[in-house]
Each structure stands twice: as structure tokens, then as C-alpha cells.
Amino acid sequence: MSEKDRIEYAALRADLVRYERYLERKRREARVRQRDRSYETERKRLWRQKNEGVAERIRQSGHAVEKALRAGDLTKGKECVHCGNDKRRLEAHHHKGYEQQFWLDVIWLCPPCHGKAHRIAKIKRDT
Questions:
Q1: What is the SS3 assignment for the chain?
Q2: What is the Cα–Cα distance from 117 to 113, expressed in whole angstroms?
């Protein structure tokens, strides 16, 4: 937290009315996030039901990466391949697909770049 943020937060805490509104907004946001999480879980469950074959290949490829990391056959990158961020946790991206011959052919991306890579791939598939 920067010094400016600390000063602004201290001023907010000093004004009880503003601080109470701030806390209520945070509570409301937390409730919305909780509802969104359950919606997202249900949406993913339905997708897996409709796409059983693809979902199974994705699951198997993820397990293969985890197993290879534990065995030392694969090493995790130190930073995101796209943005170079080394502060976030990294995720394995199967950029060549989920077929068995590509299970260990991954690049390491931070979550925002990983999501962006999947959105770009979806756009390419749909066009």
C-alpha cells in the first residue's frame, strides 16, 4: 500500500459515516462475488456435461503436468511468457491443444494472460 493510500484510508476511517458506507459497499461486493462464484461453478459443471470428451482431455493433461512437475520431468517457469510478470502464480497453458502428444508441451502464463490466450484461441476457432 502506498503512502498516499495509507493517508486516504486514515482519513476515511476518521469519518465514521463515510467509513460505514465504505464497509457496506465492501460487504455488498463480497456477496455479489459469492453469488458469482456459485453461478460460475454451475456454468462450468454444465459445460463439462455437454463436452465430456474435451473436459476429460483437459483434466488428463492437467494431471500429466502435475505428475511431470513432481517427478522433475518438467520445470515451472519463473515468469509469465507474455507479460514477464513474476509476482503472480503461473499456470500451464497447453498452447498446442489437449491431445496426449502435447500434454507436456506447455508455456507458463499468469492468470490474466492465460485467460486472454484462451479468449484469443476461441475467437480464432469461431472464425
A1: CCHHHHHHHHHHHHCHHHHHHHHHHHHHHHHHHHHHHHHHHHHHHHHHHHCHHHHHHHHHHHHHHHHHHHHCCCCCCCCCCCCCCCCCCCEEECCCCCCHHHCCCCEEECHHHHHHHHHHHHHHHHC
A2: 6
**Alpha carbon distance 68, 74 (integer Å):** 5
* Distance from the Cα of residue 36 to its chain's centroid: 15
Q: Terminus-to-terminus CA distance in the chain, angstroms?
A: 44
CA distance 61 to 72: 16
| 60-102 pLDDT, tens digit each | 999 999 999 999 999 998 999 999 988 888 999 999 999 999 9
Report the C-alpha gap between 72 and 102 in whole angstroms: 17
C-alpha 13/C-alpha 90 separation (Å) is 36
Whole-model pTM?
Answer: 0.65
